[in-house]
Amino acid sequence: RPEVAQTLLPMLTDDDALVRVEAVGALEPIAERVGPALVPRLEDPVRAVRVQAGWALRRQLAMETRAGRDLQAYFAENADQPAGALMMGTFHRDRGRPDLAVGAFRQAVKFEPAGAPQRHALAVALSHTALQVEQAGNADQASRYRREAIDELLMACRLAPRDAEMAHALGLAFAEVAKVSTAIEWLERACAI
Questions:
Q1: Distance CA 23, CA 19 (A)
Q2: Confidence class of residue 4 from pLDDT cuts 50, 70 and 90?
Q3: d(Cα 56, Cα 25) in Å, to the nearest integer?
Q4: What span, in angstroms and rounded, lies between the C-alpha atoms of 185 and 167?
Q5: What does the DSSP assignment read for 42-85?
Q6: 9-46 per-residue burial string, b: 16 or more CB within 10 A, e: under 16
Q7: Residues 6+ apart with CB under 8 A from 167
Q8: pLDDT at 2
Q9: Average of pLDDT values for 33-56?
Q10: C-alpha span between 193 and 184 (Å, rounded)
Q11: Which of 58, 70, 59, 53 is nearest to 12 (CA)?
Q12: What is the mean pLDDT of residues 182-190?
């Protein structure tokens, strides 16, 4: 909503660092639209603000900058936690590196095997990696990645049976491997949730 963004934008220069951190975080979902307003926060005197701005602008963040180094340090500090591994995977996925995202998401699942969001994220990264591998001419490896993606989504749906997004993703995953009747079943289930 434009009025929300208009309320948050002036908060990016508030005297209170916590207000700036929260304003950047709240604007992160629309960073592509408000990116120019976030760029100055990459040079904020407070590290937490730089990290939040780096995260919001992760798709194009130059990692050799101060904010890039701060974000890398943040990842390193949180690498032994499920949320940290999930963030690292999201970072790689959003920068067009699903192969690296798979490793981070696998670590997130290892840290928290009962976490449906981690399994969903891993499955999506596996599916994207399958596309890359297939385009490179390795259909067998692509098939293995797709089967693993389905297994992860099946587990995610068991862990979160009322999550329509996961059921929808599973339906699409079955469609990718030409299991049409199963795909329809899961897509109908997603609509019913």
A1: 6
A2: confident
A3: 7
A4: 9
A5: GG-SSHHHHHHHHHHTTTT--TTSHHHHHHHHHHHHTTTSHHHH
A6: eebbeeeeeeebbbbbebbbebbeebeebbeebbebee
A7: 157, 186, 187, 189, 190, 193
A8: 77
A9: 96
A10: 14
A11: 53
A12: 94
143 closest CA partner among 170, 98, 116, 173: 173
Residues near 64 by Cβ (< 8 Å), separated by ≥ 6?
Answer: none
Buried b (16+ CB within 10 A) or exposed e, 127-139: bbbbebbbeeeee
Q: 129, 123 in Cβ contact below 8 A?
A: no
pLDDT at 1 over 80: no
Distance CA 126, CA 159 (A): 19
Average pLDDT over residues 26-36: 92
% of the chain residues with pLDDT over 90: 91
Local structure of residue 141 (DSSP, 8 states): H
The two tokens of residue 152 are 């992860």
Identity of the amino acid at 94: D
